[in-house]
Write a structure and sequence with these properties.
The protein is mainly α. Helix content is about 40%, strand content about 10%. It contains 6 helices and 3 strands; from the N terminus they run βαβαβαααα. The protein has helices at about 10-25, 40-45, 60-65, 95-110, 115-120, 130-135, and strands at about 1-5, 30-35, 55. The protein has a 3-stranded parallel beta sheet with strand order 2-1-3, with helices on both faces. The longest helix is centred in the C-terminal third of the chain and has 16 residues, at about 95-110. It is globular and about 50 Å long.
């Protein structure tokens, strides 16, 4: 089997981990086809029978399937859920500056519902950000 993945990326790293675990467990190995563009090539390749599978972010894959009006591709499984973060250079920005950014972003997110309209075309519902989530991921807000 040939499984394509966009990379280098977190998804390609995760697919290599799955491949290594399968080998360790004595299961049949698959080949990884690394795609270096993010324009939907993977789902097109499945539709055209050029690869057996495409490992991708579920929301991205669904958006590409809809974008290209592809109907012969089924989503097989959910590997994991990964939160996304914005990283800041600690040398250039102080914790106070990062806290100001985070407060402004949280205000847009929670008070003004700016993200609902942005995420709606991708069928994504924004999560409820709680103090527990901020604490769990060590997000600076003060």
């Amino acid at each position: 089997m040939q499984i394509a993945v966009f990379g280098p990326s977190n998804a390609s790293f995760q697919l290599v981990k799955i491949q290594q675990q399968m080998i360790k467990d004595g299961l049949r190995e698959f080949d990884i086809v690394l795609l270096t563009d993010a324009n939907g090539t993977g789902v097109k390749m499945i539709e055209n029978n050029r690869i057996d599978g495409y490992f991708a972010n579920t929301l991205q894959a669904r958006a590409r399937l809809k974008q290209f009006n592809l109907h012969h591709v089924n989503l097989a499984f959910l590997q994991s859920e990964s939160p996304y973060f914005i990283g800041f250079n600690k040398i250039q920005l102080s914790p106070e500056q990062i806290a100001l950014f985070n407060k402004a972003l949280l205000d847009l997110y929670q008070e003004h519902d700016q993200f609902k309209d942005i995420l709606k075309p991708y069928n994504i519902d924004p999560i409820l950000i709680t103090p527990e989530i901020l604490s769990h991921f060590n997000i600076i807000t003060d």
